[in-house]
Design brief:
Keywords: ATP-binding, Carbohydrate metabolism, Glycogen biosynthesis, Glycogen metabolism, Kinase, Nucleotide-binding, Transferase. The protein has 441 residues and is an alpha+beta fold. It is built from 12 helices and 18 strands.
Length: 441
């Protein structure tokens, strides 16, 4: 009986990965009672012959308060069934469970050694999450629940706990996690760490700087506008280099030889071919992009590889009163776990942040009546902050040699190619933002 309302409800959730496709079948693989009125479900969803699994904390009440009406899934008899992450009374169970290392019917809740958890904090769901759901407990903790389940230890749990154990700066302190066995493998269900209540999102800070620049009258250079961001970009570059250093110290490293570098360039080229076939606006840039990829194929030196962030941009960093903190080490959620845990050149992260500066500079120009007039100012802002970030990265110990410059450019262009396809599919009016990456620099 529960499968029918779940199938109707799950397709409307922001974190559901199969939007726009028919649900062929939904089944409940696991249904565990956690405490009175709270169950943990693992739901299998079949679409077009493939299966995805999601977790749901299911609440049960005979009366549903107005504050939970938006979380209603359906009714069975006289019982209301709802998404219990929105119920602060029920979600106290998570804190209690982690604080006391509770094991229950296959679920294991753990706290980081020597971490004291204040179980009196009440929860609130953050509204900005896409692929996951995050609960903020007071001003102390944030617990991310991984909605779509992939067997294995989530990279965010693995990386943050390892770096924190080393006393590494620039990461938020971990407190606990939830796990279970899925396909015989330890699988992360959720991860809780310090909530940075006095921090500001890097993307928001960058956009404020861009707005100040566009609003300045007379039109001042970016260095003289009131919200100049370059000093923060410099600090962020240094913090990024330190995080890469800590990752290299905490996890295995390796090198890839020139023939493997060539295979990387070939993979870039294949993605470019598929993208150009789909997006006509990209085709006039193909020759220039392929030329950049060819420069990578000419490299003869070994390339160091290590664990990296994997999905690095301004939305993944927070500015505290004292420094930058890096968040969300889980990598790109849509990619296989093995790929997210693989070793890459740290230049992949550097390229991701450089692309983010370009996006911040031009984000406000989409649909803007003065976009053509403001474009040079956008380019000036992006160039200034990209240069500051790279300077900070070098000051922090990050290495970008002359040979690395070709690889960095290829990573950037490959990211921009991906962005072009994404915007063409989802926000066609934004496609000019990534297309600007292919102009000569």
């Amino acid at each position: 009986m529960l499968s029918e309302p779940l199938a109707a409800w799950i397709g409307r959730q922001r974190w559901f990965g199969g939007k726009g496709r028919v649900i062929d079948e939904l089944s409940i693989e696991s249904d565990v009672e956690l405490t009175s009125g709270l169950r943990h479900l693992i739901v299998a969803v079949w679409q077009e012959g493939s299966r995805d699994r999601y977790q749901l904390l299911l609440g049960e009440r005979t009366e549903l308060p107005d504050r939970l009406a938006h979380a209603l899934i359906g009714t069975i008899g006289d019982t209301y069934l709802y998404d219990a992450v929105h119920d602060s009374e029920r979600m106290s169970w998570l804190l209690e469970g982690m604080a006391h290392d509770v094991n229950g019917n296959g679920l294991r809740l753990r706290h980081v050694p020597d971490a004291a958890i204040d179980t009196s904090q009440r929860s609130l769901v953050l509204g900005a999450e896409q692929s996951n759901t995050s609960l903020v407990y007071g001003d102390a903790y944030i617990c991310k629940l991984f909605r779509r389940l992939i067997p294995g230890v989530n990279p965010e749990l693995e990386i943050v706990t390892a770096l924190a154990a080393r006393g590494a700066p620039h990461v938020a302190q971990p407190y606990g996690w939830i796990e279970t066995d899925l396909d015989g493998t330890d699988t992360t269900l959720g991860f809780m760490q310090e909530f940075l209540s006095n921090a500001n999102d890097g993307w928001d800070l960058a956009l404020t700087s861009v707005r100040d620049l566009y609003a300045s009258l007379p039109e001042l250079p970016a260095a003289e506008a009131g919200g100049d961001f370059a000093a923060e970009s410099l600090r962020l570059g240094s913090a990024t280099a330190r995080v890469h250093h800590e990752l290299a110290a905490a996890f295995p490293t390796d090198v890839i030889e020139s023939h493997e570098v060539k295979r990387m360039a070939e993979a870039f080229r294949r993605k470019l071919g598929r993208a150009a076939a789909e997006v006509p606006e990209l085709r006039r840039h193909v020759t220039a992009i392929e030329d950049a990829y060819h420069q990578v194929e000419l490299l003869t030196h070994e390339v160091p590889v290590q664990r990296v962030h994997g999905d690095y941009h301004l939305g993944q960093v927070m500015r505290t009163p004292t420094d930058w903190v890096v968040l969300d080490f889980e990598g790109e959620p849509g990619q296989p776990l093995a790929e997210r845990r693989a070793l890459y050149s740290p230049l992949r992260d550097v390229a991701g942040m450089l692309r983010s500066f370009d996006y911040a500079a031009r984000h406000l120009l989409a649909g803007h009546s003065q976009a053509e007039r403001l474009e040079p100012r956008a380019q000036e802002w992006a160039d200034r902050n990209r240069a500051a970030f790279l300077e900070g990265y070098a000051e922090g110990g990050g290495v970008i040699s002359r040979g690395d410059a070709a690889l960095l450019r290829a990573f950037e262009l490959s990211k921009a190619v991906y962005e072009v396809v994404y915007e063409a599919r989802n926000r066609p009016s934004w496609i000019s933002i990534p297309l600007a990456a292919f102009r000569p620099r």
